[in-house]
Every structure is written in structure tokens, then in C-alpha cells.
Write a structure and sequence with these properties.
There is one protein chain. The chain is an alpha+beta fold. The chain has two domains: 248 residues, Bira Bifunctional Protein, Domain 2 (BirA Bifunctional Protein, domain 2), CATH 3.30.930; 90 residues, 3-Layer(aba) Sandwich (Rossmann fold). The protein contains 15 helices and 16 strands. Strands 1-5-6-11-10-9-7-8 form an eight-stranded mixed sheet. A five-stranded mixed sheet has the order 13-12-14-15-16, with helices on both faces. Strands 2-4-3 form a three-stranded antiparallel sheet. Helix 12 links the parallel strand 12 and strand 13. Helix 1 packs antiparallel against helix 5, helix 2 crosses helix 4 and helix 5 packs parallel to helix 9. The longest helix has 18 residues. The two termini are 50 Å apart. It binds histidyl-adenosine monophosphate. Histidyl-adenosine monophosphate (HAM) binds next to strand 6, strand 10, strand 11 and helix 11.
Amino acid sequence: MARFSRPKGTQDILPEDQRYWEHLLNVVGSTARDYGFERIDTPAFESTELFARGVGSGTDIVEKEMYSFKDKGNRDMSLRPEFTAGVIRAYLENGMQVWPKPVKLYSTGPAFRYEAPQAGRYRQFHQFNAEVIGVPGPLADLEIMLLAWDIYDRLGFKNLAFQLNSTGCPVCRPTYIKTLQTHYHEHIDIICDDCRRRIDQNPLRVLDCKKGQCQPVIAAAPKTTEMLCDECDAHFSELKGYLDALERPYTLNHRLVRGLDYYTKTVFEVWAEGIGAQSAVCGGGRYDGLAELLGGPRTPGVGFAAGMERAVLVMKEQNVDVPELPVPPVFVVYLGETARTYAVKLLTEIRALGVGARIAMRGGLRSQLKQANRRASKLVILLGEDELSRGEVTLRDMETGEQSMVPTTAIASVLQERLGA
Ligand code: HAM
């Protein structure tokens, strides 16, 4: 018989890891709500055209990494490689343009990219994502950056730092790109083959190249921030002013261009200790032209997304204190068939009180107690036929080892007293 394995680049998240995920989701949800964000869930697949237009048909994500397919109605669909395009599609489609601005939305869920898997990089991964829509000024950028920061801070991550850049807008970017292309053509003999191709196809991405031979050319390349138009420059200065006032450390990184085409003005990443200097735990930026690209009215927006697998890796690496998931406090064991039937009735009565309870489903007393011990419940109720005939059960406190006889009629009140239920 063939044995199956999970697809390359995917993960089984096993029960012992779930506490990390639950904690992360709780911190993301509570921080986002404290900031006034509302949750939105969009489909895990959308029309391929949405991502081609939104993320950009020349990007690695759209060109090489999408899980695309024809559905049975012959429509071109893709599993979402990111959330922003879908969230803006939903914003436009559901008439949120008329809501008071800003509209602040957050989401969590799976995303899919056909990438070369490695530590912290998967083909199915999970993101938490947040967007502030409808406000052009840098206070919205700040809000997004502070939310990302505070989520990691509340998780207990150490040594957080922003990487920050501005990639300009359709007014100033074309001049910058021309200057960058001229610089690269002057060094055409030195740079790698990929960069030679990128100069014309996707010029900003040359700044992202990791090859040794390209590093001196990148270091000497003109910087976007030196060529911003007045509006982009003022926007960037105001944002930096807020970050300075709040004493949030940031590094100006003129190589930070990010791999999605929709960005305008601010781009940023958060780097944290734990998964190597080059790995961002999250990234985002402003996308003032995206809604228009998707057929809507001009709508400014700014957001970020973060890989949850990476966050879990850092939580483990940095020994972040993560609460254990609760175990049902009561475990019911029994001796003999009559007691078993009574045990099932008792189990449902305890659950009806709102108290979590499990029952042994097989084996003699010793094996039943073993099952109770794997995830230790606070109380074990033992039903023996003799005791039942006297109208009693044995209650054992697994934390103190103390054991007592309890009349069956008093179980509800004893549980309430012991568990505060
Ligand atoms: P992104 O930089 O492509 O941005 O992804 C954001 C984060 O998702 C990354 O920093 C990383 O933590 C995680 N990530 C990306 N790819 C993978 C992967 N293959 N495996 C594991 N984690 C991964 C976006 O997705 C934009 N939509 C962010 C945004 C929202 N910009 C504005 N609004």
C-alpha cells in the first residue's frame, strides 16, 4: 500500500504546538481590537486576474509562485498568495467606501506560494494581516507600524527593529528608476545575470540581490529617499518624526523595496532576534494606487502582513512564556459494565454543568488511569459497582492525592465547590 506524506513545503501543526498558535492568535486578535481594527475574512482563493493586477504580473509571486487552476466552470482561479488584494476587493465590493475613514481591518489565515521551502519559508503558510484604508497621511502608516510592533512586544519578542524606506510615487519614481538603470548600465560587466535581466524588467528588485558581485554596485546605487518628490519627502519626514518622538528604533534601508508592485511611499519590515539577520518577521507599506488598479475609486491604504510560522519559530527560540491549553478538569473511570453505563450518564450531567470532562473508553482500571494521566485532569471520579449500590462515587484530587467518598446526589455541588464552576 502506498504511504502518503504531506506535500512539500506544508506542515502538520501537531497538538503539542497548538498552544503557540492559540496564544499568537489571541495576542493578534486582542491587540488589533484594542487598536480599533475589525476582523474581515475573505476567500482563500480569488480570480487570478485580481492578483495579477494587484500584486503585479511581473512579480515573482504572480509569475512563479501562485497556485493557479481552472475551476470546473473554466474560470482562472488562484489560491491567495497574500491578503491585501482580496481585502481591497472586498472593501470595494461591499461598499465600505461610504464608511467613516479610516476603515481598519485585520485577518488571519493561510496563504500559498510555490517557493523553495526552508526554515521559516513554506508553500502553505499563515499570515496575520492588517490594513488601514482611506487615510493618505502618515498617521495611518504609524498606526500600522505600531500595531505590528506592539503585537511582537506583547508576545515578548526581544530586540525588535524597524527597517524603513520610501519607494516614492508615480510622480518621483520614474526619474529614480531611470537614474538607477543608468547606474546599473555603467556596471553591466560586474553584475549578475539575474540583475542584467532585472534592469529593464523589474529595476527596483536589483537592490534586493544577494549575490556577492552585485553588493558594491548596490552600495553605490542612488537612493530612493534622495529623489523623492516634495509630497513623498514631507510624508516620509513626518513619519520619521513620529517614530523619533516615540523612540521606536528604525534603520533607514535604501535596499528595502519589497516584492509586490502595489507599494507607494512607505515600505517597512520588522526584524526580530531569532531567525537570522536577514529574515523579516513581517513586512508592509503604503499602496495608494491599489484600489484604482482593481477598478475602484482612488483610495489610499497602508498595511502589513506577518508570517505566523516565523512568529512561532521566534517564540520557541526566545523561550517566550506561552500558556498551556486547558485540559478538561474531570476524568471519569469505572469498574464493570453497570458502572460504565452510570459513568456515561454522569459524564453528560457534568458536561451539562459547563464543566469539561472526559471518560475512559477502553481498558481496565489501570489503563483508564493511564489515559487520565496523559493530559492530567485535576479530578478523577471513580465509579465502582459496590460504591454505586451505596449511592456513592470516589473522588480523587490528582494534585493533592486526597481521596473521598461523595454521594451521587452531591456531585454537582462538590464539583462546583472544587472547581469554582
Ligand atoms: P510579504 O512581505 O510578501 O507581504 O509577506 C509578509 C510576511 O509573510 C513576510 O514578512 C513573512 O513573514 C511571511 N511570508 C511570506 N512568504 C512566506 C512563506 N513562503 N513562508 C512563510 N512565511 C512567509 C505581503 O504579503 C503583503 N500583503 C503585506 C502587506 C499588507 N502590505 C500591505 N498590506
